[in-house]
Amino acid sequence: MRKYRWIKWRKVLLWVAALAIVGIVLLTGGQQVRGAASTIFSIALQLLLAMFAMIIQFVALFWFLARGRTYWILPGETGATWDDYRGNPEIVDNAKRIVTLLKGVKEFKEMGGEAIRGLLLCGPPGTGKSYLAQVVANEAQVPFAYASAPSFQNMFFGVGNLKVMGLYKKARKLAKVYGACIIFIDEIDAIGMSRNTGSAGGGLGGLMGMGGSGLLNELLLQMDPPNMDNNGFAKLLRSLGLRKKKAERLPVLTIGATNLPDVLDTALLRPGRFDRKLWVDAPDYDGRVDIFQYYLQKVTRDPDLTPERVALDTIGYSPAQIKHIVNESIVIAHQRGASVTNYEDFRAAMETYEWGLKQPLRSMSKDEMRNVAYHEAGHAVAQFLLKPHERLWKVTIIRRGDALGLAATKPTHERYNRSDSEMLAEIQVCLAARAVEEEFLGKKLNGVTSDLRQATQLAGAYLGAVGMGEELFSWLAVGSQEEGLKALRPKINELLNNEMNKVKKLVKNHSEFVHAIATELVKQGDLTGEEIEAIYLTLYGEKRPVPKDPLFHREIFSSYSEVASAKEMDDQAELDS
């Protein structure tokens, strides 16, 4: 260290001595020496000015290109709190721990710990990953930077690196003022893809390129930099040996969001960069009730539009989808001139969102309409009788999107497993339309292409992926799905024919049910699940038979009130145990 200081001081002394010698020569050298020196100085000044002009142009160009589209939010500007983030209480609990660390960085370091540097949020679109990051920043009262990963990419090689460097430089300055800072990078897989696949590299070389692995390397460095002083004065003092304090890393937390965590580079996922990973998934029934309570309390609505009822209809919906559907139901109510929104508005909003707008084909002949009606009646009967875990939602022969008609169901509750009998029942539902065409219309129509494709894929999975046939061999271990389907084609065809015979027998035994649904569809255009249940009750004098749930050994419920009572029974049983 002493040797290093002596070298630094020796350089300073040599420069001082050189300048002194030049000054003495100019003062004592006479007119000719001063003239020559003036000429040399003039030429050197012109060269410096030319170089300076070129540098200014390049700096201006790179400054313009390197401006990142980053939105900075200072503490208190968003106002988003834990009360605004609904539907995933477990995620909130984990996020609160991070807020505790950000608030107590100093105390945590005194205990010998080190603040986390990275948090990766994974999950489907619309589940609230970016909103969660805003809540964390607001609750921790630290600055928040919102950046999109693709905005770092640039046609000139190195410009993306400058953007990343500038972002983290500003974050460290703010962290010094506020105690910590958060950088949120959305769609981080755009620049963080694994280098082993070759996707992160590339470009055109030279000055042209999309950043590639160089951009990822810069991100890796900035997320886990060495201990260093962050201002020029501190660096000067340390270089002169006048600063003894240990260099530190300011607490900058990088929060990344992605829908594709599997494609990220392993160096990005190691501890010290993304220390933690949280999976932000779609909310369950209780979570959806909580979200609907949050949004519906702001809505003027009829008593029939309850959070419990609509939560049962929206299984699998993300918070963003829920917010959109609630808003669309208000739009529909406003369009019909109503001052309050009701359940029918909400239902219409869901149907438009899932299937598209109604587009009736007024030129369709009665015979073609009858064909479509029997096609959808076949699906409806099979769904009604074979799928106890789902309730029939709607059957229609009015065109929506590219479908001439459809028969849709809704789950009665969250399902995470399917039994072999359920998969076979699903295959029969797919084949039911062709079965009805053959049995009641005496012909085969071309509208079963998607049905046959789905049935084939289900049969292939049944035999070659989940081991529900005679063999336990899985094609997933040796090849792709396409290769597996080709190899299993004879067995798949045999299974499909067996299920076709079963569903033909089913629709023939309930022929009056098929005819009644098809007739009403021709008259009305569409039927709700409640109307189809009423048809079944009129024909057979009883409600739809509800079997026991083969996975949970209890009766399957079909309304939100039964969901609530079943949940209470489960909670009480858990307390008793």
Brief descriptors of the model:
six-stranded mixed β-sheet, alpha/beta, 8% strand, 9 strands, Rossmann fold, three-stranded antiparallel β-sheet, single chain, 577 residues, Helicase, Ruva Protein, domain 3
Distance between the termini: 69 Å
Number of helices: 22
CATH class of the largest domain: Alpha Beta
Quickly count the domains: 4
- Number of E strands: 9
**CATH structural fold name of the largest domain:** Rossmann fold
CATH architecture of the largest domain: 3-Layer(aba) Sandwich
Uncertain spans, ≥5 residues at pLDDT below 50?
199-211, 549-561
Mean pLDDT: 82
Largest sheet: 6 strands, mixed
**DSSP helix fraction:** 55-70%
What is the general shape?
Answer: elongated
List the strand order in the largest sheet: 1-3-4-5-2-6
Give the CATH superfamily of the largest domain: P-loop containing nucleotide triphosphate hydrolases
Provide the gyration radius in Å.
34 Å
Q: What structural class do the secondary elements suggest? A: alpha/beta
What would you note in describing this structure?
The structure is a single chain. The protein has four domains: 2-65, no CATH class; 71-195 and 208-279, Rossmann fold, CATH 3.40.50.300; 285-355, Helicase, Ruva Protein, domain 3; 366-545, Methane Monooxygenase Hydroxylase, Chain G, domain 1, CATH 1.20.58.760. Helix content is 56%, strand content 8%. The protein contains 22 helices and nine strands. The strands form two sheets. Strands 1-3-4-5-2-6 form a six-stranded mixed beta sheet. Helix 3 packs parallel to helix 5 (129-140), helix 11 crosses helix 13 (319-335) and helix 13 packs across helix 14. The radius of gyration is 34 Å and the shape is elongated.
